[in-house]
Amino acid sequence: MIRYIVLLVSCSLSLSISATPQYPITMITSLCEAAAVKENYSDDLASAAFPLVLDSDGWMNGGSRELSHEFIQSDLKDLKRFRKMLKKEGIDDIYIALVPPRTIEKDKFKHGNFNNKQELINAYRNQLTKLNSIGFMTSDLSQGMSSVEPAFYFKRDIHWRPEGAKVTAENIANKLSKGDLLEGIPAQTVSTYAIGMNVKSSSFFDQAMYELCGYKLPTEHAVRYETTPDVEIDLLSESLIPDIALIGTSYSANDNYHFDNFLKHALQRDVLNYAIAGGGEYGSWLNYFQARGDNATTPKIVVWELPSYSNPASYKDLRQIIPLANNGCEESESITTFSSKTTHRGKKEIIFDDALFDFKASELIMDIQTNDPLATSMEFRVWFESGFNYDFSIDLIDPATADGRFVFELANKDWDYRGKVLAIDLLSASYSSETSPLTLQGKICRNSFRG
């Protein structure tokens, strides 16, 4: 009887196994033909992922942002102005954590334009040298990058793994621990623990492959960490606001990578994280400036995390961030004010005022409040007394927090040779309504950080 039951169970298992659907497993070793045609990429995807490259062991890359980049020397003077402005505000020590490009990770990329490691490393180190030359602290964060296990970066995403964030934090702490930079900053005992293998990568390049080819590779996972101070925090302490601030991108803002906490652990000191995802090079600086009014103290050290493909020297953002650091024209005497209405493509003169005739464009800041919190960009034309004019656009660094306000320099000193300002036209505006005009209330004031 017992044998009969066992045979029935055995038969049942056999039937169950044979009924299980069978799926073929194919290892992807190359991309589909569509991935080689630029026209198949959306506009956003083309700049970030074309040409898509599938390398050995499932590593992927694409686009040009992680190839050789150099800061434009002429732009560095505007970044230097920003540095001087921050120093005047009381921030003496700013460490730029320029994250090394994932394309130089050892033996990960061998095809396409990513195989010349030394050229990529030299370009990265040249960026560090130029940042040093205008007053920022840096160090070579590519040191030890290739020894990180299992890897510094995810195979198919632009972001680092927690392991890459950890070794970066340790390298930064090693740099800041030299000399007396950390003296006077309260120390605390901080511990970090692994709490599971449940971090998933966002797999940017994998998603690009899926859109182009209809298939993708398995999602990558990583260890999740938790960091806690070993002492209770005194909520009534006057030193509750940390003396170290972290400014950064999604690399610093995303809890999955745990970078801010690794930094706390490596420094054994508290760090206040202002980083935001999607804000580019300067979105988190805006976050800091907006929060600064609530804080009575200025951080002694700022760690400014930037991906290797960033360009913090671009005047397109600096012309906004420099005046925004001083709240535009809100606390300055206005040279003139104006009000106007416009449509999306409604070119019109918004200012022709003899109060401006004594000023060069670099001496002036415009501060415009619109009636649409979803307004994102405007295009302007400046007329000079010489008869010359030039056009420029202002794309808000972080439209979500700008609330429809546009603050910017009319120009930098490169335009001084054109003479004094004669008039300003608004050429176009991007905002939410398709039918209602956009209302503008504006001020013009002097630029106190013209350089």
TrEMBL record:
<protein>
    <recommendedName>
        <fullName>Alginate biosynthesis protein AlgX</fullName>
    </recommendedName>
</protein>
<keyword id="KW-0808">Transferase</keyword>
<feature type="active site" description="Proton acceptor">
    <location>
        <position position="159"/>
    </location>
</feature>
<feature type="domain" description="AlgX/AlgJ SGNH hydrolase-like">
    <location>
        <begin position="56"/>
        <end position="307"/>
    </location>
</feature>
<feature type="domain" description="Alginate biosynthesis protein AlgX C-terminal carbohydrate-binding module">
    <location>
        <begin position="328"/>
        <end position="447"/>
    </location>
</feature>
<dbReference type="GO" id="GO:0042121">
    <property type="term" value="P:alginic acid biosynthetic process"/>
</dbReference>
<feature type="disulfide bond">
    <location>
        <begin position="32"/>
        <end position="213"/>
    </location>
</feature>
<feature type="disulfide bond">
    <location>
        <begin position="329"/>
        <end position="445"/>
    </location>
</feature>
<keyword id="KW-0732">Signal</keyword>
<dbReference type="InterPro" id="IPR031811">
    <property type="entry name" value="ALGX/ALGJ_SGNH-like"/>
</dbReference>
<dbReference type="InterPro" id="IPR038639">
    <property type="entry name" value="AlgX_C_sf"/>
</dbReference>
<dbReference type="GO" id="GO:0016740">
    <property type="term" value="F:transferase activity"/>
</dbReference>
<dbReference type="Pfam" id="PF16824">
    <property type="entry name" value="CBM_26"/>
</dbReference>
<keyword id="KW-0574">Periplasm</keyword>
<comment type="pathway">
    <text>Glycan biosynthesis; alginate biosynthesis.</text>
</comment>
<feature type="signal peptide">
    <location>
        <begin position="1"/>
        <end position="19"/>
    </location>
</feature>
<dbReference type="GO" id="GO:0042597">
    <property type="term" value="C:periplasmic space"/>
</dbReference>
<dbReference type="Pfam" id="PF16822">
    <property type="entry name" value="ALGX"/>
</dbReference>
<feature type="active site" description="Nucleophile">
    <location>
        <position position="250"/>
    </location>
</feature>
<keyword id="KW-0016">Alginate biosynthesis</keyword>
<dbReference type="InterPro" id="IPR031798">
    <property type="entry name" value="AlgX_C"/>
</dbReference>
<keyword id="KW-1015">Disulfide bond</keyword>
<feature type="active site">
    <location>
        <position position="157"/>
    </location>
</feature>
